[in-house]
Design a protein that fits this description.
Number of domains: 1
CATH topology: Alpha-Beta Plaits
Shape: globular
Radius of gyration: 17 Å
Strand order of the largest sheet: 2-3-1-6
Low-confidence stretches: none
Distance between the termini: 49 Å
CATH superfamily: RRM (RNA recognition motif) domain
Order of helices and strands: EHEEHEEEH
Largest sheet: 4 strands, antiparallel
Strand content: 25-35%
Helix content: 25-40%
CATH class: Alpha Beta
Number of strands: 6
Length: 102
């Protein structure tokens, strides 16, 4: 199974629309649009395809695809980084700048 990130979705996009967009490329295990607590779309979603070859075809075909006037960003999902990982990366990249200020 391959999880695909779909960014720059129209804010009105639904799980069903996302599923239908990917079904021509292979069996879709799941498709979900990320929503905020208030129910408003966050503008991205995740799709899980059962066949890695189908996922690759879908990514190639749909990256840059225009949906309701928005150019989609479609790629293989990467693991979410923890807050600690992001802070360590920021600290590493900004350590010399911080020393100059103090």
């Amino acid at each position: 199974m391959t999880t695909i990130y779909v960014g720059n979705l129209p804010y009105g996009a639904t799980d069903d629309e996302l599923r239908r967009l990917f079904e021509p490329y292979g069996p879709v295990e799941s498709a979900s649009v990320a929503v905020q607590r208030n129910g408003r779309s966050r503008g991205f979603g995740l799709v899980v395809l059962t066949d890695p070859a189908a996922a690759s075809r879908a990514i190639s075909a749909l990256n840059g695809f225009e949906l309701e006037g928005r150019s989609l960003t479609v790629n293989e999902s990467r693991p979410r980084r923890s807050v600690r990982d992001r802070q360590e990366q920021w600290d590493t990249g900004h350590s010399s700048e911080r020393r100059r200020r103090h």
